[in-house]
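[recover] target loaded
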């Protein structure tokens, strides 16, 4: 009996001497493994789509700070603004004592925040597959069951938007400008993939990348049937050489989205369903040959 008790005691000592394993382990888009003793309760987000995903998963109360561009849902507006993804206020972030900082892979602040002892998870969705993966990853981080339901709702909304369109707008050649670089939403971006599912043809091929910066002459030569652009970009667009000669501009096959709608369209997060509806509405009203309903806005 003494031998058995000694063996049990020895086994217990061995277990106590082993390193403790993290309760939660996340691998971010840089391939960095981040360990947590428990699901983070205090979160700083430096990318609007990531903050929106946290809120859509019902965990908005965990956000203690966001970047200057995060403005949805309404409940995030009073939160401290900690700069932008590319120029965050490091001191302010540290002062908020976050359990984790969510940021884009393109942010240069990750190494500095890690050096200060903060946990950082870098995630940057650019395609539909990325969006689905990031939503699941954040669901895992927050220990929220069935995070997949957000993607299922987006997927169903995109399908419904596509089915709502008349056959006459299919194949419309579209140029979608993300911001005044001009940076375009290419065929391989989440916006481009939504346009493809809506039956449109993107003039910016996948070979140029998801969001390439283009020479304005490239768009003039491509001469799209329809242009989609945010209100913030449209004024500069009108001043570009040769642009007013494009058929889309001459015939006013142009959808100008106000700032709030533009934010919805360019963020790869839970509002992609509404983004698909906005693009479908544009195609139905403004594509060549499409007959806008009576009373439709110009």
């Amino acid at each position: 009996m003494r031998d058995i008790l000694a063996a049990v005691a020895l086994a217990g000592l061995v277990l106590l001497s082993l390193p403790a394993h993290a309760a939660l382990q996340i691998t971010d888009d840089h391939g960095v493994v981040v360990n947590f003793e428990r699901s983070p309760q205090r979160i700083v987000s430096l990318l609007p789509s990531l903050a929106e995903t946290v809120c859509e998963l019902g965990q908005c109360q965990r956000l203690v700070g966001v970047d200057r561009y995060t403005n949805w849902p309404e409940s995030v507006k009073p939160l401290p603004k900690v700069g932008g993804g590319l120029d965050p206020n490091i001191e302010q972030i540290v002062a908020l004592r976050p359990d984790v900082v969510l940021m884009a892979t393109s942010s240069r602040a990750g190494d500095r925040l890690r050096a200060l002892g903060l946990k950082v998870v870098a995630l940057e969705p650019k395609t539909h597959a990325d969006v689905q993966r990031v939503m699941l990853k954040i669901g895992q981080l927050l220990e929220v069951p069935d995070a997949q339901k957000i993607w299922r709702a987006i997927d169903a909304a995109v399908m419904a938007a596509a089915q709502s369109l008349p056959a006459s707008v299919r194949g419309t050649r579209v140029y979608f400008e993300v911001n005044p670089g001009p940076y375009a939403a290419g065929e391989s971006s989440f916006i481009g993939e939504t346009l493809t599912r809506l039956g449109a043809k993107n003039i910016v091929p996948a070979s140029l990348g998801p969001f390439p910066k283009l020479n304005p002459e490239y768009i003039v030569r491509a001469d799209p049937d329809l242009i989609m652009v945010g209100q913030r970009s449209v004024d500069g667009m009108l001043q570009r050489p040769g642009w007013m000669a494009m058929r889309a501009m001459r015939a006013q096959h142009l959808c100008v989205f106000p700032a709030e709608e533009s934010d919805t369209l360019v963020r790869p997060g839970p509002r992609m369903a509404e983004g698909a509806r906005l693009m479908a509405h544009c195609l139905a009203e403004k594509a060549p040959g499409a007959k806008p309903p009576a009373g439709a806005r110009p």
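[recover] notes: Residues 4-21 have pLDDT under 50 and may be disordered.
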